[in-house]
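Review form for a predicted model. The reviewer records the input and the model, then writes brief findings.
Reviewer: anonymous (R2)
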Amino acid sequence: MASSLKQLLNWGKEHPITATAIAVGSVLVVAGTIYVITPYLLRILGPVGSGLVNGVASRPQKKPACCKASQKNVYKCKEQSLQIPSIDIISETIPTPLVGSALKPGRPCQHSSCESIKKGLIGIYRIRDTEGAYKYIGKTIDMRRRCQEHSRRGLFNEHSESFEVLTAKREASIIQLFIAEKEQIRRHSPYLNKTAGGNGR
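Model under review:
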């Protein structure tokens, strides 16, 4: 190999122009090849490969400011990741306690038709019969849908009975709505509720 390299160097000295042209051409071919295949290589390797090529993976990731200040702030970061569960599904997750009632202040909105109820309202509903007596009280994450369900099952007669809506506060949790439902049932004693509430009956 040493003799071959020596011969190549001697040839380069004897033909400097040709040797220079070959060297420059080789460099251009290699650079062009790298330029062409790099995008395809990054697509094949994906985000990890792209990060490695750009040197991103070698840099330490910064922790959120709230997570490195103190133990108290670490708890805040975990608290922010909590998701309030669906009102119709019992969950062990208990968000930050709500001060006062889970329901918005003010008088309940009365509806004689399900179509007049806004979609997606969360809270407590009360059904009154034709004589004004409390018939049934429950909770839901969609007032209009629940009203329509009760109407189809015959629990609520549209245009002759009243469907009262008490909207929940945005920060109210499922546990707090259970408590609000129980309180409404205890206060008004609807004759079709089988239990004291808190379990969807």
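Findings: The mean pLDDT is 74.
Further findings: Strands lie at 109-111, 123-128, 134-140, 162-167.
Recommendation: see findings above.
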